[in-house]
């Protein structure tokens, strides 16, 4: 084959190390860009009046402290501004005049102003540290309460990593803003204006000489501002990705080790870490241009002032003390400019963080109690699904279709079907984690959309398929739904579900720490604790979502024996893949694609030889198959 192009594409193994490194960098950046598109961040303005007003609402309870801090800031700024002038007076009226008394007087004045500046600054910082921390604590508490008001639909579409970024990262940015930047901004502006006024009063000629370098400062500032906005945004975005991935990796460490994914995870984290490093390097390069540039311009201004001022002093048109004072002012003149430049990124980050936080706070739960909702009285436990249909989104496909089901008080209802048949959706509707989109769901004749969610759920006992235990002791977890329960009641609930035996064998018994999400307990033990937790609440309706799916056969028998007794007098809804656990149910409801296709007792459904018969006989045959082991 003849190749007519003079330029050919080199094979992978023919590339130079530099070309391979470049290709790797481009691939990494492509992966990072994809992640950034999935979780884009607001760029933010340097100032947004709407957001500042909302932040001001959180500051209102502390306005007296803020006023005191501003007064202290004003005093400290005034004392700071007069310092160089005092030195100039000491030189002209004390040293040059040969008056020791005058020199001593201005020296004492200088010491007093220095001590006064230190005291007022220290007091201001203490006040603002308290106010900033308190405002952020208030906001974090409001966020936490608001997150608990949001429904499950929100958490299905919002990652935990992003929420942690809001609660920790964004709120931390606001703390930095409130604590340091608010009074810091006014202090920088006040100092800058004060220095300009002082220089003009002392020598307007030298002031104009110092200001001659300002065009250079404007050019440098505009160059830095236009680029640092994107650079610091990139670092914040990549840090958020790292935090999210760390949260996911640590939470799923058991799965990672089970599938030996460590090396792949290392490489992915290295990509994120390297991208964060590159973004930081770019931001650092900009800082390395701007801040040394400010220092250079400041030195240039000082040199011009010394040169022109010295010439004026030699011509007796200016005193030496005034020249020294102006030189000191020139050196201080660029300090607030540096601070304001550094604050710019803080302001921008604050506006972006505020936008995200307020956007989260403004989210209204898609399931709220009716304004006329009543408290559900003590129920007997009759549950009626009256032609119920449901879709998870308004324009989405329905997952339940015209469900008609009646459970009388004390009955045990078993829900059976393949994955995706709608079993879990039914109990989510019963728990009112979602509202029905068609028909009505009644408990003791009350439409659950017309009663308060709290009064409904207080009479439900729920054990979900995914068992979750909270950090604390075993007793704390069992008592989670009924804090006033005595130790004896906790123990009785544990004995009823067969958990007391293994709890007693723990080093500290009921006081043993379960670890994060029950990491110190086995899957079966966690399930037993969750059973005890649900039963201690003494519910009128008991909901078990594949609650025995994670336990071994021996433990399942213990649980089944306890449930047979504990379900007496309670309406129970049971989802189980092991059909052997529901043969004594009063009603077995077979679901398929959101519809009830069979309904009856175990014997009735077997006699029909329909879908339930097929499911049951397949499981029975699978259980009877011999198991072979290889030596």
UniProtKB/TrEMBL annotation:
The chain crosses the membrane at residues 64-91, 103-120, 192-220, 286-305, 311-330. Signal peptide: none annotated. Residues 383-618 form the ABC transporter domain. It comes from Candidatus Promineifilum breve. The keyword Transmembrane applies. PANTHER family: ATP-BINDING CASSETTE SUB-FAMILY B MEMBER 10, MITOCHONDRIAL (PTHR43394:SF1), ATP-DEPENDENT PERMEASE MDL1, MITOCHONDRIAL (PTHR43394). The lineage of its organism: Bacteria, Bacillati, Chloroflexota, Ardenticatenia, Candidatus Promineifilales. GO terms for cellular component: plasma membrane. This is Uncharacterized ABC transporter ATP-binding protein YknV. One of its GO terms (molecular function) is ATP hydrolysis activity. It is a multi-pass membrane protein. Its main location: membrane. Keywords: ATP-binding, Cell membrane, Membrane, Nucleotide-binding, Transmembrane, Transmembrane helix, Transport. PROSITE patterns: ABC_TM1F, ABC_TRANSPORTER_1, ABC_TRANSPORTER_2. It is found in: Cell membrane. It comes from the Bacteria. SMART domains: AAA. Residues 67-349 form the ABC transmembrane type-1 domain. Pfam families: ABC_membrane, ABC_tran.
């Amino acid at each position: 084959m003849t190749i007519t192009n003079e330029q050919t594409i080199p094979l992978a193994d023919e590339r130079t190390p530099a070309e391979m490194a470049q290709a790797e960098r481009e691939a990494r950046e492509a992966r990072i860009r994809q992640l950034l598109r999935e979780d884009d961040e607001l760029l933010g303005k340097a100032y947004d009046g709407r957001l500042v007003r909302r932040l001001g609402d959180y500051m209102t309870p502390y306005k007296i402290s803020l006023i005191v801090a501003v007064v202290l800031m004003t005093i400290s700024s005034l004392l700071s501004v007069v310092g160089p002038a005092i030195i100039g007076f000491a030189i002209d009226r004390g040293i040059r005049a040969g008056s020791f008394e005058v020199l001593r007087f201005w020296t004492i004045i200088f010491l007093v102003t220095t001590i006064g500046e230190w005291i007022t600054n220290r007091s201001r910082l203490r006040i603002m540290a308290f106010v900033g921390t308190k405002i952020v604590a208030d906001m974090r508490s409001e966020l936490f309460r608001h997150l608990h008001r949001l429904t499950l639909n929100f958490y299905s579409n919002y990652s935990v990593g992003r929420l942690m970024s809001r609660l920790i990262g964004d709120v931390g940015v606001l703390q930095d803003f409130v604590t340091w930047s608010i009074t810091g901004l006014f202090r920088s502006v006040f100092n800058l204006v004060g220095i300009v006024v002082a220089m003009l009063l002392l020598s307007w000629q030298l002031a104009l000489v110092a200001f001659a370098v300002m065009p250079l400062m404007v050019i440098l500032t505009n160059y830095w501002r236009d680029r640092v906005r994107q650079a610091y945004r990139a670092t914040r975005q990549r840090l958020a990705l790292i935090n999210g991935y760390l949260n996911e990796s640590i939470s799923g460490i058991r799965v990672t080790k089970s599938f030996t994914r460590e090396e792949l995870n290392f490489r992915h984290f290295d990509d994120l870490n390297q991208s964060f490093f590159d973004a930081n390097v770019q931001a650092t390069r900009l800082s390395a241009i701007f801040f040394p540039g400010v220092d250079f311009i400041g030195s240039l201004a000082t040199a011009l002032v010394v040169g022109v001022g010295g010439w004026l002093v030699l011509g007796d048109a200016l005193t030496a003390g005034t020249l020294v004072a102006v030189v000191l002012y020139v050196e201080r003149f660029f300090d607030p400019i540096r601070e304001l430049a550094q604050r710019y990124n803080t302001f921008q980050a604050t506006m972006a963080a505020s936008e995200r936080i307020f956007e989260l706070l403004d989210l209204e739960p898609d399931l709220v109690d009716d304004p006329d909702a009543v408290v559900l009285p003590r129920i007997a436990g009759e549950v009626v699904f009256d032609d119920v249909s449901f879709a998870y989104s308004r324009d989405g496909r329905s997952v339940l279709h015209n469900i008609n089901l009646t459970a009388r008080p004390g009955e045990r209802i078993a829900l059976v079907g393949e994955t995706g048949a709608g079993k879990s959706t039914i109990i989510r509707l019963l728990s009112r984690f979602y509202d029905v989109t068609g028909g009505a769901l009644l408990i003791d004749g009350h439409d659950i959309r017309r009663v308060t969610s709290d009064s409904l759920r207080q009479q439900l006992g729920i054990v979900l398929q995914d068992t979750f235990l909270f950090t604390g002791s075993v007793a704390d977890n069992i008592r989670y739904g009924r804090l006033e329960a005595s130790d004896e009641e906790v123990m009785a609930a544990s004995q009823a579900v067969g958990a007391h035996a293994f709890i007693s064998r723990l080093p500290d018994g009921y006081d043993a720490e379960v670890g994060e999400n029950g990491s110190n307990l086995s899957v079966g033990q966690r399930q037993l604790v969750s059973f005890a937790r649900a039963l201690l609440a003494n519910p009128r309706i008991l909901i078990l979502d594949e609650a025995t799916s994670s336990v071994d056969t021996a433990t399942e028998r213990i649980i089944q024996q306890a449930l047979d007794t504990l379900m007496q007098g309670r309406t129970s809804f049971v989802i189980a893949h092991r059909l052997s656990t529901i043969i004594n149910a009063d009603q077995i409801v077979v679901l398929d694609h959101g519809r009830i296709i069979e309904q009856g007792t175990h014997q009735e459904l077997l006699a029909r030889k329909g879908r339930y018969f097929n499911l049951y006989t397949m499981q029975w045959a699978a259980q009877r198959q011999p198991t072979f082991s290889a030596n």
